[in-house]
Amino acid sequence: MEIRNLLKYVKKNLPIFLIIIMAAAIRVIPHPPNFAPIGGLALFSGAYLKDKRAFVIPLGAMIISDLIIGLHDTMIYVYVSFGLIVIIGSYLRKNQHWENILGATLISSILFFVITNFGVWASSEMYAHTASGLRQAYVMAIPFFRNTVLGDVVYSLSFFYGYRLIMLMDKNLALSKARK
């Protein structure tokens, strides 16, 4: 790839790289358990991107941060959850009213809870591999669910409305330049 094409590629994709790095950094710095940006980012990416970038952004942030935080046996369940949340986000493309965003966020949080805690039960020896053990895995995870929901709501609304604010400011900037 020649330099000109490389620069064009970097310029086109720089916002994506910055978002991935920002989300990974937020996930790595100390924060309350399960209060992280990836669920909101996955929902937002699904809503705004129609190609593989919708999956690359949240999963790229996960890969980078998991390499720093450490790998674990339930990663596949976490990654599948976020991939499904991207798909849920794609249903918001045509109607991003706040009720729809909030509803999709809550569905995403529940989906993450169900899949990842099933993964903990299935791939570890923490709980008996019985119906009672599965129930215990879900019950023990309830305290973490609160932070999952709070984090997903805060970050989803931040991504969706932050983006709208940036677009509004950019539009106003373009209009003010056109008037001069």
From TrEMBL:
<feature type="transmembrane region" description="Helical">
    <location>
        <begin position="12"/>
        <end position="29"/>
    </location>
</feature>
<feature type="transmembrane region" description="Helical">
    <location>
        <begin position="104"/>
        <end position="124"/>
    </location>
</feature>
<feature type="transmembrane region" description="Helical">
    <location>
        <begin position="144"/>
        <end position="163"/>
    </location>
</feature>
<keyword id="KW-0812">Transmembrane</keyword>
<protein>
    <recommendedName>
        <fullName>Rod shape-determining protein MreD</fullName>
    </recommendedName>
</protein>
<feature type="transmembrane region" description="Helical">
    <location>
        <begin position="74"/>
        <end position="92"/>
    </location>
</feature>
<dbReference type="Pfam" id="PF20221">
    <property type="entry name" value="DUF6580"/>
</dbReference>
<dbReference type="InterPro" id="IPR046487">
    <property type="entry name" value="DUF6580"/>
</dbReference>
<keyword id="KW-1133">Transmembrane helix</keyword>
<keyword id="KW-0472">Membrane</keyword>
